[in-house]
Amino acid sequence: QITLKESGPTLVKPTQTLTLTCTISGFSLSTNGVGVGWIRQPPGKAPEWLALIYWDDDRRYSPSLKTRLTITKDSSKNQVVLTMTNMDPVDTATYFCAHRPVHYSSHFDQWGQGTLVTVSS
Amino acid sequence: DIQMTQSPSSLSASVGDRVTITCRASQSISDYLNWYQQKPGKAPNLLIYAASNLQSGVPSRFSGSGSGTDFTLTISSLQPEDFATYYCQQTYSTPLAFGPGTKVDIK
What we know:
Shape of chain A: globular
Number of helices of chain B: 0
Radius of gyration of chain A: 14 Å
Oligomer: heterodimer
Number of helices of chain A: 0
Strand order of the largest sheet of chain B: 2-10-9-4-5-6
Shape of chain B: globular
Distance between the termini of chain B: 36 Å
Structural class of chain A: mainly beta
Mean pLDDT of chain B: 97
Order of helices and strands of chain B: EEEEEEEEEE
Helix content of chain A: under 10%
């Protein structure tokens, strides 16, 4: 059974750096074709894809946020970490991590429960 | 970047109704189109991947079709648990954009 769980601060101040951790179980980050993505969703709005890291450490970022994002993985710890610099109140959202299965279409078939991050001074 | 649109943005329907939601991409995405259902306070749940493939565990009343730029999600007989918001997502190229959503509520 694949599970993912996000963890990190619930409140950050403007200009601070956000660090979120996704802890996975039920699959390996070393399996050929597997990936983990981060998606956020501001209150009342549609999801927004942020970043994706593949089993081979290939990384993809949303172009609009690329300068602020870093995604890394630690296969031995079963964790994927997302950092976002220079946080702003508009970054207030629920942040999800999700499993990308071994399939050409890159969909997300399992999601974490999400963690709400509020940006406020 | 590929832009996704959905129509309608919301609809009211009754239990047992056939419901169709449309998603359009700003350029051809072949069959790299997925559908998710989301209920309040929950993560999106994958329904359909690669345009027409039913995700394991999803009821067969859900179906997807289309290719290129135009796609459809159909619920053949709406059930009480289907009242939710539905999002399409293209995975043809990054950024992996989601549509704005279609909210299905009770008539």
